[in-house]
């Protein structure tokens, strides 16, 4: 194997044992040779069995905290500790991150929204560290297990609820267009409008950033339109909060003048004024399921499916109502 990779036996041993003092390119060559020859890492020492690595793109949203609670809850039942890595808003971890993780030799890695590269996933596999992704931002083309919610159904339910109330000028503020869950929620919204024969107005589709600031920015733009929407489906609760602020700035009442629907059902959703109608995804359960799957992999038991999709559920509260009568007197 060392000869196949063009390295010394000592260097090959360092890579196989997770030593950090090997360059990234050399590590990649050795790992490719290890995989090609069907290498399987030895059983972990007991001292490595109580550490779980959690990596996330950023800590700016309560969504992340709810996921962490689920992972932590499951880890605690196995008397495992957590190491938290935040990528400062980046989706892809750095090479230094994978070097540090391999050196720590955790029992498993859980990524939320963040997507380790193919090389990084290979590094984890070679070192016997299972990876499970939660709501990955980009599609995983290998067999990495991932956990999500029914985003398309959630977008469909949100738009159908507003259509059922009589709205026809229904806007949406989705997330970045290159994020999988953003596209799925937007597609569900489109499907509901198409089915109801409500024209899809491109002017009413805005791309946010899943932050309150993005909801405020895009909410202001939508409410400044000459023919403004009577309802807005924000693709997460943080952006719905931004829409609330945009409406307050120009004196619009929710839901008398504007209906708002969010997505997530974060704890704060029920405490907004008025309480937010939103699409619930079971974030605690998603986090726990991801770690549970990783622990099974660590024992050598592959999951029956690579994808675990939790159902989403529309939660109707006080932020939606029939559209106002906007006819001229």
Automatic annotation (TrEMBL):
Domain HTH lacI-type: 1-51
Pfam short name (any one): Peripla_BP_3
UniProt xrefs under CDD domains: HTH_LacI
The entry's keywords: DNA-binding, Transcription, Transcription regulation
InterPro entries reported for this sequence: HTH_LacI, LacI/GalR-like_sensor, Lambda_DNA-bd_dom_sf, Peripla_BP_I
Protein name: LacI family transcriptional regulator
Natural source organism: Sphaerisporangium rufum
One MF term in the entry's GO annotations: transcription cis-regulatory region binding
């Amino acid at each position: 194997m060392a000869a196949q990779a063009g390295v010394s036996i000592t260097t090959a041993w360092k890579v196989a044992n997770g030593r950090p003092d090997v360059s990234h390119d050399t590590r990649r060559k050795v790992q490719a040779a290890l995989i090609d020859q069907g290498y399987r890492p030895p059983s972990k020492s007991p001292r490595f069995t109580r550490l779980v690595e959690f990596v996330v793109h950023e800590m700016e949203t309560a969504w992340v905290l709810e996921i962490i609670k689920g992972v932590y809850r499951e880890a605690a039942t196995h008397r495992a500790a957590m190491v938290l890595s935040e990528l400062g808003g980046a989706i892809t971890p750095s090479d230094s991150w994978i070097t540090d993780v391999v050196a720590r030799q955790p029992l498993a890695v859980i990524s939320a929204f963040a997507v380790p590269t193919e090389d990084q996933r290979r590094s984890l596999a070679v070192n016997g560290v299972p990876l499970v992704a939660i709501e990955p931002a980009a599609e995983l083309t290998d067999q990495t297990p991932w956990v999500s919610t029914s985003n398309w159904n959630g977008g469909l339910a949100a738009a159908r609820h507003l259509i059922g109330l009589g709205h026809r000028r229904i806007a949406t503020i989705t997330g970045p267009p290159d994020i999988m869950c953003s596209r799925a929620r937007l597609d569900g919204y489109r499907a509901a409008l198409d089915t109801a024969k409500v024209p899809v107005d491109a002017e009413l589709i805005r791309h946010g950033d899943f932050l309150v600031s993005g909801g405020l920015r895009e909410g202001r733009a939508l409410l400044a339109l000459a023919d403004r929407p009577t309802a807005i489906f924000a693709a997460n609760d943080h952006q719905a909060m931004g829409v609330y602020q945009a409406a307050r700035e120009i004196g619009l009442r929710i839901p008398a003048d504007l209906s708002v629907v969010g997505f997530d059902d974060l704890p704060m959703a029920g405490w907004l004024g008025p309480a937010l109608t939103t699409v619930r995804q079971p974030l605690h359960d998603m986090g726990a399921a991801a770690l549970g799957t990783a622990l099974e992999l660590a024992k050598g038991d592959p999951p029956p499916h690579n994808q675990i999709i939790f159902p989403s559920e529309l939660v109707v509260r006080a932020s939606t109502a029939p559209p106002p009568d906007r006819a001229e007197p």
